[in-house]
């Protein structure tokens, strides 16, 4: 059946929520031969996300890694869930609480999570809990299933789609240009990492002969949409649904 077909999102025990593999070429100084070695690095955060979304994703991936893949036991990755899960009842309760905390953290992304994504999260948590209730065998299957890693990858996939939508809005000029008038085309937009809110210039309002200064600040969402070093701030329009 199609629903059970293996994909990069549902492979048992093979998808790391925090690290990704990449290949590097190494040349021997003596023989001159070239060998290819596989190394690991933290997973690349999808482009086009606000700083808040990036932080939430990194936090969820890091926690999922600790819960599901912290230790290497006989060549297989096992996390704290698998270790504590050996204890009857206590291990199951510990696993559910940690999974629900991970779910709660994922809700902190801008705009929250769609109901369909929340349903996928909760389904994995429920299934993981039910599997853990099976004596002895259930703990081994639970370690293989890695519900938290699956949920971290579901969040990553959702934010990838969200980031692509943000980049498309920039290319179509649906997100306002920078205040310096610089073009917001995808070829020019760089990685935006500004942390300070943009400040609106002070204006004087005359009222019955007295002058008062009104200062206002706004903190627009910041999107990372490329690797070019140029930096731009995009202010969220009041009438624009991002």
TrEMBL record:
Residues 191-202, 210-224 have a biased composition (Low complexity). The keyword Mitochondrion does not apply. Pfam families: DUF4112. It comes from the Eukaryota. Keywords: Membrane, Transmembrane, Transmembrane helix. The chain crosses the membrane at residues 78-102, 122-141. InterPro entries: DUF4112 (IPR025187). The keyword Transmembrane applies. Residues 181-225 are annotated as: Disordered. This is Uncharacterized protein. It comes from Cyberlindnera jadinii (strain ATCC 18201 / CBS 1600 / BCRC 20928 / JCM 3617 / NBRC 0987 / NRRL Y-1542).
């Amino acid at each position: 059946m199609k629903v059970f077909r293996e994909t990069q999102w549902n492979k048992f025990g093979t998808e790391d929520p925090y690290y990704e593999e990449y290949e590097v070429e190494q040349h021997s100084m003596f023989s001159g031969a070239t060998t290819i070695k596989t190394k690991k690095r933290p997973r690349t955060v999808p482009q086009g996300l606000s700083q808040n979304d990036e932080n939430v994703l990194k936090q969820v991936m890091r926690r999922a890694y600790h819960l599901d893949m912290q230790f290497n036991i006989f060549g297989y990755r096992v996390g704290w869930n698998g270790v504590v899960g050996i204890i009857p009842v206590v291990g199951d309760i510990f696993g559910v609480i940690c999974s629900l905390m991970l779910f709660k953290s994922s809700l902190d992304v801008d705009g929250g999570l769609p109901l369909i994504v929340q349903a996928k999260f909760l389904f994995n948590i429920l299934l993981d809990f039910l599997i853990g209730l099976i004596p002895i065998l259930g703990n081994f299957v639970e370690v293989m299933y890695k519900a938290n890693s699956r949920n971290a990858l579901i969040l990553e996939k959702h934010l990838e789609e969200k980031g692509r939508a943000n980049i498309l809005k920039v290319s179509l000029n649906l997100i306002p240009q920078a205040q310096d008038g610089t073009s917001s085309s995808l070829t020019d937009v760089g990685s935006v990492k500004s942390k300070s809110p943009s400040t609106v210039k002070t204006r004087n309002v005359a009222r019955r002969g007295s002058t008062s200064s009104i200062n206002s600040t706004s903190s627009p969402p910041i999107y990372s949409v490329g690797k070019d070093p140029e930096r731009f701030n995009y202010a969220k329009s009041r009438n624009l649904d991002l």
